[in-house]
Specification:
single chain; mainly alpha; flat
């Protein structure tokens, strides 16, 4: 109301009919504009916002709890949550095989006496040949954004990398530069870069 006074705008209640199907038509005891817009706009928006929060966090809470089994080397951890996780993401896989991989994965963590703190550290320890299903679940965990800020940062990095002068860049190089810009905390040695370049066919031989 104060902003309407500043802008010299008069807030009025829309015309209410006896039978209205295209918009809100509440029956209010008072005809104040504040009461009308509170019932038709504010309260439905808050209810929709709360429902979206419940849909995003509460319904998938048990599924996300299954990821904890991948980091806990305790054999007594809850496998029911892990079964929900497998049935949600790996629908075509055999559950008994995946549970067997989970036990082997926990034995490896117990033997190495390592408890990974995040999905990337666990993915480095997990072999895709020995633990294909566990490796797939860890890749899914690493690609799940915690919030919408993560993909927004990706787009911001993409705008900085793909400038006007780099508009004709190919997709492979663009993906590589974007990944380097996002994951700056990962240290790369010159030997790793040379080994990666040496595996690709080139017209000129790399002589060291």
């Amino acid at each position: 109301m104060k902003m309407a006074e500043v802008l010299d705008f008069q807030i009025v209640v829309k015309r209410i009919n006896k039978r209205q199907i295209n918009r809100a038509n509440p029956s209010l005891s008072s005809e104040e504009p504040e009461d009308y817009f509170r019932v038709t706009i504010c309260i439905p928006y808050i209810e929709s916002f709360i429902n979206q929060l419940e849909l995003r966090f509460l319904e998938h809470h048990n599924i996300f709890k299954g990821f904890y089994c991948l980091f806990d080397n305790n054999e007594d951890s809850n496998e029911a949550d892990f079964e929900s996780l497998v049935s949600f993401y790996l629908t075509h896989n055999d559950l008994s095989t995946t549970l067997g991989e989970l036990k082997m994965w926990k034995l490896k963590l117990a033997r190495l006496n390592i408890k990974p703190s995040n999905g990337i550290d666990a993915l480095k320890l997990c072999s895709p040949v020995i633990f294909p299903n566990i490796h797939m679940l860890l890749k899914i965990l690493c690609t799940l954004p915690v919030s919408t800020a993560t993909p927004e940062r990706m787009f911001s990095n993409l705008k900085r990398v793909k400038s006007y002068l780099r508009n004709t860049m190919k997709e492979d190089r663009l993906n590589g530069l974007t990944m380097l810009s996002v994951y700056r905390n990962i240290n790369l040695t010159p030997e790793e870069v040379i080994d990666e370049l040496g595996q690709k066919p080139r017209k000129i031989d790399i002589v060291l």
